[in-house]
Structure to design on (301 residues):
């Protein structure tokens, strides 16, 4: 799930190509739950999956950065920007990767994906708390839809087990941490190119996760999960980001954000087909409310 603006040096409008690329990226993000569940089936804990995913993504993006012209100059940020770049990666990659996978482990994939899409509402809340932007009346409707949708998809009208409560917390934390990733990304965008930004983001995120879960541990202790972890890093991580950032060169950010809301739908359908998870009326209704809110809160040109 991404929500940046149009990339610097964007290409002329080619809406069909741009839409196809965004839909491809969102579909790959929607498949993350399947890869996560496969890794969990091999006994790999969520924090280890997150650590290895971030580390492999960093190894994948670093050669791209080093093969460009003048790589050292590009990878040398302004001193004042370094804390921002490191915080961007520590929260947006390190914390987000872990809590979202923890939510997938504890909750139905469709519910975890829907809670992730509370991120636009968290962005509004963060901007209000920091004093950057007031909560305008027109935004109260989508915020209400997010609350109603979260209530429905988590089955808040029923008793939740301890594991379910932890999953609920992790799911909401995934939305909040992704919102911080979005807010910090807006402050970085335009000052550094995408590759440089993600070198620092994946590097910082991998470093934070490595403190609690060395990324090579699953490769040594769960070798049967190696293929799943490699595919997770290649598909729903690196390839999805590449498709998205190429796609927004051809269409507006608001359109891209709207198209990307198919991610929780793809996640739910894959969970239904692959994992046999049921989709209750409350989950379907709640997901629809959250997607509607995300569309209403999408960035505008």
């Amino acid at each position: 799930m991404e929500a940046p603006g149009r990339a610097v040096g964007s290409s002329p409008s080619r809406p069909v190509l741009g839409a196809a690329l965004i839909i491809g990226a969102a579909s790959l993000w929607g498949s993350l739950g399947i890869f996560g569940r496969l890794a969990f089936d091999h006994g790999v804990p969520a924090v280890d999956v997150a650590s290895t995913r971030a580390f492999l993504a960093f190894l994948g993006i670093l050669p791209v950065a080093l093969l460009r012209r003048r790589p050292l100059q590009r990878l040398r940020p302004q001193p004042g920007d370094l804390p921002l770049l490191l915080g961007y990666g520590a929260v947006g990659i390190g914390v987000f990767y872990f809590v979202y996978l923890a939510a997938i482990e504890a909750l139905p994939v469709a519910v975890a994906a829907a809670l992730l899409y509370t991120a636009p509402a968290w962005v509004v809340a963060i901007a209000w708390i920091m004093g950057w932007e007031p909560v305008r009346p027109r935004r109260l409707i989508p915020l209400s839809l997010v609350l109603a949708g979260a209530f429905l998809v988590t089955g808040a009208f029923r008793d939740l087990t301890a594991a379910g409560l932890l999953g609920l917390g992790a799911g909401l934390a995934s939305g909040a941490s992704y919102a911080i990733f979005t807010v910090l990304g807006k402050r970085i965008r335009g000052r550094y190119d995408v590759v440089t930004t993600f070198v620092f983001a994946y590097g910082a995120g991998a470093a934070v996760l490595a403190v609690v879960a060395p990324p090579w541990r699953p490769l040594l202790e769960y070798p049967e999960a190696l293929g799943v972890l490699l595919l997770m890093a290649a598909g729903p991580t690196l390839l999805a980001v590449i498709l998205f950032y190429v796609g927004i060169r051809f269409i507006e950010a608001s359109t891209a954000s709207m198209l990307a809301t198919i991610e929780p739908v793809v996640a739910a359908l894959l969970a239904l087909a692959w994992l046999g998870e049921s989709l209750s009326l409350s989950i379907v209704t709640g997901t629809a409310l959250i997607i509607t809110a995300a569309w209403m809160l999408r960035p505008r040109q």
Notes: The chain has 15 helices and no strands. The CA atoms of residues 168 and 178 lie 15 Å apart. The chain has one domain: 15-296. The first helix runs from residue 15 to 30.
